[in-house]
Design brief:
The chain is mainly beta. It has one helix and five strands. Strands 3-2-1-4-5 form a five-stranded antiparallel beta sheet. A hairpin with a 2-residue loop joins strand 1 and strand 2.
Length: 91
Amino acid sequence: MCLAIPGKIVEFEEKNGIRIGKVDFGGVTRQVFLDFVPEARVDDFVLVHVGFAISRLDEAEAERTYRALESMGVLDEEPGGGPGPEPDPTR
């Protein structure tokens, strides 16, 4: 299954002709390539798949998508494919 996670652009810069942004995913910030959404700016919401912003969306749609993913348990791991929280050794 392919999955894109909504996030908010908090800053961006251009390096060697490539637009790179810092995107906040509900408290977790990751570097994201923004070349597929050249119109995206700071405070815009984007859908991110494997490190690439693939489309812009409004804040309400970002919130709905995030809540849906959360309710399905998809967000138990950190966005971007990293490991989730450390396991509790007492369990």
